[in-house]
Each structure stands twice: as C-alpha cells, then as structure tokens.
Amino acid sequence: MKLKLFGISVAFMLMLGSQAARGQTAQPDIIAKQHVFEAPSFSFQNGRTIRNLRFSYETFGTLNAAGDNVIFLPRSYSANARVAGKVTPADAAAGVWSGLIGPGKVFDTEKFFVVASSSLAALPTGDRNTVTTGPVSINPDTGKPYGGSFPIYTIRDMVEADRLMLQSLGVKKIHTLFGVSMGSMQGFEWSVTYPDMVARHIALLPMPEADGFLTAWMNTWSQPIMADPNWAGGNYYDKTPPTAGVVQALNVIHLHQRNRSFGAKDGRKPAEGSVNPSNALEGRFATEDAMIKASEARARIFDANSIVYGARAMALFSPGGKATLEEAFAPVKASTLLIPAKSDILFFPAYADNARDVLVKLGKKATVFAIDGDGGHFDGVFKIGQALPAIQAFMAE
Amino acid sequence: MKLKLFGISVAFMLMLGSQAARGQTAQPDIIAKQHVFEAPSFSFQNGRTIRNLRFSYETFGTLNAAGDNVIFLPRSYSANARVAGKVTPADAAAGVWSGLIGPGKVFDTEKFFVVASSSLAALPTGDRNTVTTGPVSINPDTGKPYGGSFPIYTIRDMVEADRLMLQSLGVKKIHTLFGVSMGSMQGFEWSVTYPDMVARHIALLPMPEADGFLTAWMNTWSQPIMADPNWAGGNYYDKTPPTAGVVQALNVIHLHQRNRSFGAKDGRKPAEGSVNPSNALEGRFATEDAMIKASEARARIFDANSIVYGARAMALFSPGGKATLEEAFAPVKASTLLIPAKSDILFFPAYADNARDVLVKLGKKATVFAIDGDGGHFDGVFKIGQALPAIQAFMAE
C-alpha cells in the first residue's frame, strides 16, 4: 500500500460532513484490510490501452468456497475504497459506511466478504489511502504523469477494472452490489453487462442513465477547472495547480450535494472578518464562506483532472451503451432496490421511479424506497437509517 | 429613448425561449409606449449617492383620475421594461407577457394602466430597449463608466427607484403588483415597506427572502465572472470584456432556470462538428453545446457587472431588512397570490408555502397556486396559462 504522507485521513469526513459517523454503535471500530490490485495493462472502451493498472481496494470478512458471499461497493464520485472502520486504530475517523459494515450489521462481516474499490481515477489522490490509476499517475512510456493525455474513461471501464480485481480474488458472484451515486451507475452497468454476476443491486442515490440535464451540469463541474489558466490542458503536475478553478467546481458540487438545508440558518450574515457584502463586491456571506472553506479543504486532497474525468464518465453514461433503458435492462437478472433522496436536486427521485417502472415492465424485480428529508443528495448518507429495514428485507430475499 | 444600435430586439426571446409567445391570441400586437425616467440624484441603502439616475419604463393604457388603476411589473433578474406587444410593428418578437397584457386580457389595458420598469442595473444593456443606470453607465463625476465602483444595490433600492418613477406619473396606489422571480422580491419589499400602496401582489416564482442556499448559489453565478482575468475588478469597458466568465455564469443560470426538461432528448449525443467526448476532454455533447450557444447569445447582450450586481442584490434580500418573515410581514396590507413552479430547483415551492403560512398566521390574505410541470423556473413563463383562472379570480376580489 502506497502511503502518501501529504494526505490526511479526514478527507471523507470533510466530504461527507461531520454527522457521517451517525448510526455507528459503541462497538470498537473494525479494522479494514487494504490491498492493491495490479494488472500489466488495461484497455479502455474508447480503444486506448495503458500499461501498469494499479488501484487500492479494501476488504472485510472472508470469501467463502463458492466465491459468492460478496458485497461489493464500487467507488462513488469523490470517494475511494476507504468505506468502513479504520485502517489503524489511531485513525481520526472511521469510514462513512461504518454503520452498515461490521459484525452483525446489515453487511455482516462475519457472513459476507465485503469489498470496496478505488478503481480508476479516484478523486482524493492527496489522501494517503488512495491508490488509483488516473491522470496523476506516471505513464511508464514517458516517465511523466499522464495529465490531460490520460484516456477518457467510462462507467463501463470502471466495471471492467473492478471485474479484473474481483476475478483475481476468486469472486464468482456478487450477493449484493451496493452502489452509491456514481457507484449506482456502475451497479446498473454490472447488472446489464454481467447479469449472471449480480444477484442483488442496491442503487443508493441512483442515476440509471445520464440525461442531457446531468450532462450539461457536468460541464459546470469541469469548466471552472478547464478555464483556469493553471490547468494548462491538464498538465500542471510540475507547476501551480488550478486551485481556484477546483474551488469553484467544488462549490457547485457542494450545493448539488446539499440542497436547501445548507446554510438555511444565518446564511446571509456577513462572514466573520469579511467586508460587508452590502458595501463591496469582495464581501462574503457566512454561507458562502463556509462553502468556500469546505471546497478549499477538499481542493487540498482532490486532483483537478480527476474531477474533470469523473464528470465526463458520468456525462457519458448509458447502461450497456444502449439508447433506451428498455433495451439496456432487457438482460438484467438482479433484483434491484432503488433508494433516492426525495430532495435531491440532481439525481431526482423521478429517475429511480422510471428505472423501477422499466425493470418491472420487463418482468424484473425492482422496488423504490425514497429517503425523506430536505438535505438533498447527502440525505442518502446521513439519513440512510431510514432505509435499513428495506435493505435488510431486500437482502434476505 | 436612447437606442443602442448594437442591441437586438430578440434578447428576451433568447432569454425565455421560443415558446414565450404562447398564449397570445391572433389579435394584432399592441404597441408599447416607452419612456425614460430621470432624477438628478439617487441615494442607495448602503449610504452611497449617485447623480443622474435614468431608466426606461413601458406603459399601456391610461392612468385614471384617482391614480389607482395601476398594474406594476418590476423587472426580473435578466429582463428590462420590455414586457408586452411591440415597440414598432416591425419588431421581430412581442414581449413575453403579451398573453397577459392587452385589451380584454387578464391585465386589461382598456381598464388598467400597466407599467413595467427597467430600474437599476438591468442586465441586457446590449438590447436597444434598455435604458438603465448601472455599472455600465457613465459616472458624471469622472466621465467614465462606474464599473466596479457602482454602489452595491438592494431590492429595496429597486423599489425606491421605481417608487420615484411611479410618483412622477401620479400613481397613488398599485391595484396589482405582478412580480416575477426577482420581481417577486420587490413585490414583498413593496408590500412590507409601503403597505398602503399595494392592494394585490401576485408573486410569480416567488422568493420571499434569500436563504443561505440562494446566497451560496449566487456565488456560483458571480465567481466565474469575477475569476475571469478580463473582469479586472469590473473595469473592463474600454478593454476585452470577461466573456468566457459570463458564458460560464449563464450556463449555471440556464440550468437553474430549466430543470431536467432541458436536453432530456438526445442530450448525450456528441454535438455536431465536435470531437467525440468519449475521446477527448474538449469534446462537447449536444446539450452542452445548446446550453453554451444560448449563453453565448445572451453574453452578447448582458453586461457582466450587472450579472454580478444583480446576484448580490438577490443574495442580500430580506424583506424590510428583518430577521424573520414573521417580523417582516407584520405591516402587509396587500392580498398575496403566490405562484411557484413545482419543479423549480432554486426558487422552491416550499418557500411559497412558507410565506403563505406566515402571512395567513398574521391574519393576511394569501394563497398558493403551484404550476405543474418538469420545466423548472421557466414553467412560470411557459405554463402561466395554468394560473390564469387563479389570477383572474384574485384580481376580481
């Protein structure tokens, strides 16, 4: 495991907020096993090939002889394989899914082999727990980081990278795929492309396909970075990185993740130490300041190119590359539990309902459980407790 | 009336989409009367004073002797006083509210004196129908445009500027204030500050006060412009304007206005003439391309500083400067009809419900009529037909 000394382990708490540990019991933290998968080469959907694929994954529990007691967590947009418990007991914070993963928990580590992946181009390259192959990696052909020459990757590419890793472990079948947000896209792609490999798919904050609205928003996540002169076509690793652009991009992402629960209180007060925004354009409101500071903290850990490449992967997503969900979902064998957040302003609950309707019409098993709240996308994390009985029932089927 | 030759009259059709003329009958277009209001000086809420306030307003019909048959339309964020009919019969397009304003229409110009204002710092300074005092105006003290030295203005300042204009016409009382989006903020401010002046307030796409969520989003409208090196602190009028920043800002604004109806069809196809986005970061999707081209068209007409100043005015808004709506709404005498769009992702219907609840609790008359649809904020324009019976009933009370 490559340790990056400049990384900090609170990356995911910053990302997901301080309430993330909710739902954990008073039990001692479980210890995650970290590993690195390596393959001599990897071919992307767009025809390009790279040498030396490497990414970290995390496991809990033991694979059974049949190779089918597997719970798999593909990575979500801004995350890596760091999902539950701690790596060492001294770590400041436990993984965000610690409430779900552990002995006797919903994803019972005494019964299941739980695997989480850092896959391709994970964003938090400044976190010491991230090993991932992406723009920041050294291209063995040039001895320099890929930068903007890294191949555009797709959700299907993430699935293929993870499939190689799971195969290397002897996994035959995924009992439950728990895909969160961008992870749900991978879940749909898995169910469509490898229908015999996936028995159950829990799509939390699901996005069954990118529509034009998502595609257009992805532009607003990428453009502030690509417009920053320091981006330099993605080749900034030996220069000043495009931090201002990254902060702007993360501001938009932040608001997409939060909905109006964010800053509802005292939001329009001037920020401490700021000129009054009534008097000067450079004045800052308290909410604005909180958002910018959160983005600045994430910007210290997130790689600019990886934000851009990840946004592109989401914008390109259609399961199985098919034009319609009806065509795409025809081969699916998995049962699907879709868990949208009612107040999500980007991954709308209507998308989940539509996917359920298409699956059911095709004779598949699919249900929706929607999380109540006004916290937007993040309700999928902070209010996951609402969905636990539905998840338990679904896994017992 | 100052005519800007480089302006184009289709500004508002671009802004509001091609369906804007819907709801118009086959009657010939009415002709709007355009005027310019002038005052020797104007004092802002933050204490600053400017000389030579000038802005255009548009009228239809005739003021009665009592001065109380007035329907007033304060300007919305990206609009000016151009609201209905045409200025000359040769104009390419009629104003967006042509379906509502005219002889025998809901705002019956044979009965009412209809007034619309360009007020302070209207955005479309490149439109020949805009006269407005804002950053682009010449500061008589320096002989140069104000640029970034223009005073930060507030919703209250817009109300004061309009009040001077209405007073100059002999208006004693507003029968119905029709405030759209940012115009609804002015409607709330009017009702709170001049309760005896407003009999009825129709708040279309209402925002009763800025919460922290809106305030933070306003940062994402301003930052792309302020981060563009060509912005130069707002002093770009004799140089290259910050067009790239304006396009980025307008992209975000565009998506806020549209919701997921935008680009739902064929959105993730590559744009015509673009590299395939699967192969290169500079590749563009069809939706992205449509959004960017719409923003580029608006960028030719909209002043960058005015976008920034308008966003600040919205972020600063609390009616009457009060901390809570309960305090703010205490003096209100107007009846209020709140018309949110159900799928609005920024001006949430919940805000309208909350304002109604507060008003009713205080013993005021207030009702909500929510427009159905998946078109977001723009449903308030394109689907206003749904609300016409409610508006008619409200005006007859």
Class derived from helix and strand content of chain A: alpha/beta
Distance between the amino and carboxyl termini of chain A? 37 Å
The helix content of chain A is 25-40%
Please give the count of helices of chain A. Answer: 11
Identify the most extensive interface between protein chains.
Answer: A-B, 63 and 64 residues
Give the biggest sheet of chain A. Answer: 8 strands, mixed
Oligomer: homodimer
Q: Can you list the strand order of the major beta sheet of chain A?
A: 1-2-6-3-9-10-11-12
- Coarse morphology of chain A: globular
How large a portion of the residues of chain A is in β-strands, by DSSP E?
15-25%
Plain-language structure description:
2 copies of one chain form a homodimer. Chain A is 30% helix and 15% strand. With 397 residues, chain A is α/β, with parallel strands linked by helices. Mean pLDDT of chain A is 92; it is low at 1-25. Chains A and B meet through helix 4, helix 5, helix 6 and helix 7 of A and helix 4, helix 5, helix 6 and helix 7 of B.
